[in-house]
Amino acid sequence: MHSVTLYHWEPNANSGKPMLALMEKGVAFDSHYIDLLAFDQHKPEYLAVNPNAKVPAIVDGDVTVFDSNAILLYLAEKTGKFLPAKSDKARGELLSWLMFVASGVGPYSGQSVHFRVYAPEKNEYAINRYAFEAQRHYGILDERLAKRPYLLGDTYTIVDMAAWGWARLIPMVVGEGALAKLPNLKRLVDEISARPAAQRAVALASKHKFKTEMDEEARNALFRHMTVKVA
Ligand SMILES: N[C@@H](CCC(=O)N[C@@H](CS)C(=O)NCC(=O)O)C(=O)O
User: Fold this and answer.
1) What residues contact residue 188 under an 8 Å CB cut-off, 6+ apart?
2) Is residue 37 within 6 Å of ligand 1 at its C-beta?
3) How far apart are alpha carbons 144 and 146 in whole angstroms?
4) Whose CA is nearest to atom 12 of ligand 1?
């Protein structure tokens, strides 16, 4: 493997996933932080890495991969680590649950945080719709974990890492006390958070001095729809 560069913000939901995966797999990487509140994601040099102007992304030699779950799959296939057994049945489950986290858990959780925490007006309909859908998705993970230790069965895989990214932030996504109502998912989150790799991933945040003020520059970087009328 070439030396990998990880482009990330603080180890929030999406950046935390490849950080955890790289640490778990013991892959050395350069940490290149993108300060989302300081407009870094829109700079041409970063758009050349991820045209979607979001973190995370990795560069591995002449390979560029963006989108957190794509990075998890790329690293797992490249290193052969944290994948389920090699069978069509296991591959079907891997792809289904990885995409369920990528296309369901992630976007609904992100929108729930947006309407609960950041939207300038508190719109009850939007807050409840996204919190409801996020919670419904977490409920599906919780139910699955009632019957098996990990999301794909008996072994810890990239699907658990993908779920950990958002699930550890459930209090912010759905509200305080929500994780306690999902005991099986809480067990998985607690187990992964206690792993040395997860602790190293979270500690990486303190290496960088991220901007924290949600000022006009930050709002313009993150919420560009506020100044552009589309419809
Ligand atoms: N589907 C993407 C979502 C990435 C994403 O939304 N990243 C957020 C941080 S968690 C971001 O970069 N936001 C910056 C922006 O929207 O300007 C993934 O899973 O990597």
Assistant:
1) 145, 150, 151, 160, 163, 164, 167
2) no
3) 5
4) 54
Nearest CA to ligand 1 atom 13: 54
In tens digits, the chain (231 residues) has pLDDT values of 668 999 999 878 999 999 999 999 999 999 999 999 999 999 999 999 999 999 999 999 999 999 999 999 999 999 999 999 999 999 999 999 999 999 999 999 999 999 999 999 999 999 999 999 999 999 999 999 999 999 999 999 999 999 999 999 999 999 999 999 999 999 999 999 999 999 999 998 778 888 999 999 999 999 999 888 898
Calpha distance 213→47 (Å, rounded): 23
Nearest to 14 by CA among 74, 53, 56: 56
